[in-house]
Amino acid sequence: MSNTDNHTLMLLKRGIWIYFLLILFEGALRKWVLPSLATPLLVVRDPIALWLLYTAWQKGLLPKSGYLTGMMVLACIAMVTAMLFGHRSLPVALFGARIFLLHFPLMFVIGRVFDKEDVLQIGRVLLWISIPMVLLIGMQFYSPQNAWVNKSVAGGDGGAGFSGAMGFFRPPGTFSFTTGNSLFFEFVAVYVIYFWLQTKSVNLLSLIGASVAVVASIPLSISRGLFFTIVVIIFFAVLATLQNRKYLGKMLTAGFVIFIGLAILSQTATFQTATEAFMSRFTNANESEGGLEGTLGDRYLGGMVTALANSGKQPFFGYGIGMGTNAGAMLLTGSAAFLISEEEWGRVLGEMGTLIGLGIIFIRLGFCYKIAVFSYKKMTMGETLPWMLLSLGLLNIPQGQWAQPTNLGFSVMLGGLIIAAMRERRVLQAEQPVLPHNEQFDNPLIRRAS
After folding, report:
1. Residue 98, C-beta contacts closer than 8 angstroms, at least 6 positions apart
2. Which residue in 389, 427, 391 sits closest to 107, CA to CA?
3. What is the pLDDT at residue 223?
4. Kind plus residue range of the DSSP H or E element containing 162
5. What are the DSSP calls for 236-265, one per residue?
6. Beta 168-170 vs 162-165: how paired, if at all?
């Protein structure tokens, strides 16, 4: 293996880490550090994604995949139809197309460049970050909306919190909106549960601290979505335990530690108040949405069915790619709004029409089906990391709100990490390519740089 190969691999890995850290702290930059650059920082990860794709392609590291090719072709066609039959705004079309031309392909680059050890390192870093993050959202929860810690991207006294319950607001953490905070702790929860099954590969102090942080984040976030997602993640862990009985003792240990942490937290006034607000939000929302069935059905399946039912009422080629994003609405009307649909499938079908929109949706579903099949096979062989990441991936990749940059970034990382988690790090020989052939995702052999 040449020095050039090693250097390229290290550069790409660093670029992926920068992309990942910007997901976590882009909102902090926009709110607190560089508020005057809040608008351009919205797409701060785009140049990183472009550089990663270009470098990977230049060095023969960009894998061949029908999902990748199909998505890019459909996005290009959607740009043409937007200019001919839709909103006819090139900036809006480019903003919408970048989701599929820059970020979706990045999943395959991450899956090609990273391996299992890199995926684990992401998790170890997340565990440590979760501890100050939960302290931050605690400060935001109890601080007034005009406090500096609750400053929004837009500025003013309104604050970045979103309506919650009992006069408390849902805190955003370092993110520009509360959904970023929920996605962060969902991501952490995946690794917390995985590392309890594999305690030898993590610092135990960080694992205990992160476990407490995840438990505390549920009431402090006032997010039912976070609660339901953690339930799904635990369900996946139970399935893994049933398949591999050696994890049973570790699962029981994890449950005991979390129970003790919950018991200690419940004795504090801070946690009790947050829990009351969360339960109030939970009860009121369940009454208005019809309980658990209504909540999950409407948010996950209901949005899909409604989007398909309404697709026939829209133009055949849609209103134009990018129009359904807040940034696109700002460019077209001067104010942020959901011009088409707040739900992802409704936005995709409304922007690109039934034919192209369904093509985009089927590619996302097909990709999820493939990673689900291989993650399950890995789980049956005793490797639970892809399976645990899949628990969150299946909730975000098929119909996560990719129009929102933070949601998009988490989906990209999840897709890439699931692929990467399936491949062990190998000891490289002198003439061995930087990365081995991965037949599961139609990746070609990587050519040695000349």
Report:
1. 43, 46
2. 389
3. 85
4. strand 162-165
5. HHHHHHHH-GGGHHHHHHHHHHHHHHHHHH
6. antiparallel
Question: For position 158, what pLDDT does the model report?
Answer: 67
Beta bridge partners of 42: none
Beta-carbon count within 10 A of 154 CB: 14
400 close to 198: Cβ distance less than 8 angstroms: no
- Two tokens at 75? 């996005």
| Beta-bridge partners for 168 | 165
pLDDT at 151: 85
pLDDT, position 162:
65
pLDDT of residue 379: 93
pLDDT for res 120? 96
Burial code (b: 16+ CB inside 10 Å, e: under 16) for 365-380 equals eebbebbbebbbebbe
What does the pLDDT read at residue 334? 77
Question: What is the per-residue DSSP string for 319-373?
Answer: S-TTTTSHHHHHHHHSS---SS-SSHHHHHHHHHHHHHHHHHHHHHHHHHHHHHH
- Which residues have CB under 8 Å from 291's CB, separation 6+? none
Residue pair 112/418 in contact (Cβ under 8 Å)? The answer is: no
pTM for the model stands at: 0.89
pLDDT given for residue 387 in this prediction: 96
pLDDT, tens digit, for every residue of 241-264? 888 878 888 788 888 877 887 888
* Integer Rg of the chain from CA: 22
Q: Low-confidence residues of the chain, pLDDT below 70? A: 1-4, 154-166, 285-305, 311-312, 426-450
The Cα–Cα gap between 91 and 97 comes to 10
With 0-12 / 13-18 / 19 or more C-beta atoms within 10 angstroms meaning exposed / middle / buried, residue 79 is buried
Q: How far is CA 403 from CA 99, 266, 327, 400, in A?
A: 8, 38, 9, 9
Distance in angstroms (rounded) separating the CA atoms of residues 332 and 428: 52
Contact 222, 170 (CB under 8 A): yes
- Name the 3-class secondary structure at 164: strand
- Which pLDDT does position 295 carry in this prediction? 53
Question: What does the domain layout of the chain look like in residue ranges?
Answer: 1-115+309-373+398-450, 138-289
